[in-house]
């Protein structure tokens, strides 16, 4: 059995997970990364995606919309802007976020904002494809 | 002296009022519990945010610090975000916050600074409008919001940051009421821009060398606005809990006052009724004697 470490998933509204886990997959902005015990200290921002938490042979999946991960050798904290269990994800909510992102692109004034908004929309649609079976 | 009928009406009306205040007290108690739970649930995030921020602020040297943290280098224009409740009937809760804000405004104006006020919540607006209506630039209405979510706080933070980026102000202070217990809420002023970054206690924080993805300044640039949202969110939650606590206390004493009033009125009523009976008896007896 793999060595375990302490993992916390917190959103501003509540503490979702706080337990010892074996591994966690985090959707970092620079690519997905799997965190295991004794990982090098890392701080990364998170893009919208799925956090997969493996503990006791089971994997729980949570959908997060942006945030940060603070990774230390013996612990890992994900500060998500908003996080829900994958089973509780609300289709309308996701659709609304995508709609908002589309509007942001429309409203974008300069190139850079538009680029960022488009990237965000892309991440959202990828996420939608990943969690919602067509 | 009031007639018996008038007294009876008074008693009935005070009783009705007492029923209402009692119901309001119970509703506030139930809501208080929920508000307290929400405030407690939000605490871990705020705490972790603090540690992460302290870690990263140490890594980014002063010159790279984003303006939200370093400030504009001036303190000419102040923005006051005054967060109060949407509803009254909660004792001195709203006026306490407004009073604190007003003192601050006066002190700033005396020093020749420019003051702008952003009101969150209807009551604060109503109170501040009287003296400093010209300073209020905008108000945020949360009346339709049943349960304060992070989104609401985020919206306010976005507005504040937008103003900052346009150079509308140099220093932003948030006014809210800190929830200490059901009985006591302390009006508090908190400076949110430039952000006061918690300094790490030596020995407690980890001295690990972090890898940053992407790089530290851009994470920090992202983290600081979020921290502002978190602080506003916390203030709103504390306010919500404080409002309910204050309302509960206020309604409790209102119920008690109504009870005392009913007792007093009942005594007067009974006394008068007895006086009237005695008077009638005397009239009958003296009438009988006269025969």
TrEMBL record, chain A:
GO terms for cellular component: endomembrane system; plasma membrane; proton-transporting ATP synthase complex. Keywords: ATP synthesis, Cell membrane, CF(1), Coiled coil, Hydrogen ion transport, Hydrolase, Ion transport, Membrane, Transport. The keyword Ion transport applies. The keyword Coiled coil applies. One of its GO terms (molecular function) is proton-transporting ATP synthase activity, rotational mechanism. It comes from the Bacteria. It is a peripheral membrane protein. SUPFAM superfamilies: Epsilon subunit of F1F0-ATP synthase N-terminal domain (SSF51344). Residues 91-118 form a coiled coil. It is found in: Cell membrane; Endomembrane system. Residues 5-83 form the ATP synthase F1 complex delta/epsilon subunit N-terminal domain. InterPro entries: ATP_synth_F1_dsu/esu, ATP_synth_F1_dsu/esu_N, ATPsynth_dsu/esu_N. Belongs to the ATPase epsilon chain family. Produces ATP from ADP in the presence of a proton gradient across the membrane. F-type ATPases have 2 components, CF(1) - the catalytic core - and CF(0) - the membrane proton channel. CF(1) has five subunits: alpha(3), beta(3), gamma(1), delta(1), epsilon(1). CF(0) has three main subunits: a, b and c. This is ATP synthase epsilon chain. It comes from Nitratireductor aquibiodomus RA22. The lineage of its organism: Bacteria, Pseudomonadati, Pseudomonadota, Alphaproteobacteria, Hyphomicrobiales.
UniProtKB/TrEMBL annotation, chain B:
Keywords: ATP synthesis, Cell inner membrane, Cell membrane, CF(1), Hydrogen ion transport, Hydrolase, Ion transport, Membrane, Transport. GO terms for cellular component: plasma membrane; proton-transporting ATP synthase complex; thylakoid. It is found in: Cell membrane; Membrane; Thylakoid. One of its GO terms (molecular function) is hydrolase activity. Pfam families: ATP-synt. It is a peripheral membrane protein. InterPro entries: ATP_synth_F1_ATPase_gsu, ATP_synth_F1_gsu, ATP_synth_F1_gsu_CS. Its main location: membrane. Gene3D superfamilies: 3.40.1380.10, ATP synthase, gamma subunit, helix hairpin domain. Produces ATP from ADP in the presence of a proton gradient across the membrane. The gamma chain is believed to be important in regulating ATPase activity and the flow of protons through the CF(0) complex. F-type ATPases have 2 components, CF(1) - the catalytic core - and CF(0) - the membrane proton channel. CF(1) has five subunits: alpha(3), beta(3), gamma(1), delta(1), epsilon(1). CF(0) has three main subunits: a, b and c. Belongs to the ATPase gamma chain family. This is ATP synthase gamma chain.
